[in-house]
Amino acid sequence: MIDLSSIFALITSFSISLGYLGAFILGFFSSFTLFIPSPTFIGVFTLAALGTYNPLLLGIFGGLGATIGELIGFVVGVGSKKILIKKYEKELIDIERKFQKYGGFIIIFIFSATPLPFDLVGIFCGSIGYPFKKFFLATFFGKLIKYIFIAYAGFYGMHWLVSYLF
Per residue in 1-30, pLDDT tens? Predict the structure, then answer.
């Protein structure tokens, strides 16, 4: 049996040696698995804590990688749309209109910027035919804020902790 925690630890240690590209890879792997939580975003925190990389750039690269990883759920949703549309075409059109009318962009943004379960949102958006560009932008802005926050927390948090303890 494959031990996922060992795989994620290997990805994290490898990515840390790659700097900004490593932040992108960590962001991607933290988001590309469906329904399996991956703590690889801790690598971005660690990269920032090293103090050798700009935390803003780490957040941007990590956020972009995470956004691209989240597209897996959207694509799964698009694939399921073909199955669902045969039975529920009228209902899907109605749901999509309501989702866009009542703040779908904001909902996607909030779910992507917080630790809420985003995989369901991606699958849902793909299955109702939510516009790809809007989905991508809302996800990117949310992940960008999340990863910039993680990077700055690592950059300033570790320095503060070390200075406080020693």
Answer: 566 667 667 766 777 788 899 899 888 988
Considering its fold, how many domains does the chain have in total? Answer: 1
Q: How far apart are the first and last CA of the chain?
A: 43
DSSP result, 5-72? HHHHHHHHHHHHTTTHHHHHHHHHHHHSSSS---GGGHHHHHHHHHSSS-HHHHHHHHHHHHHHHHHH
Which tokens sit at 89?
Answer: 């075409």
Residue 46 CB neighbours (<10 A):
17
* For range 22-44, the mean pLDDT: 81
119: tokens are 């995989």
Q: What are the pLDDT digits (tens) for 123-132?
A: 989 988 889 9
Q: Domain range for residue 19? A: 4-165
Q: How far apart are CA 100 and CA 108, in angstroms?
A: 11
Closest of 65, 59, 73 to residue 144, by C-alpha: 59
- Identify the residue whose tokens are 């990688």: 65
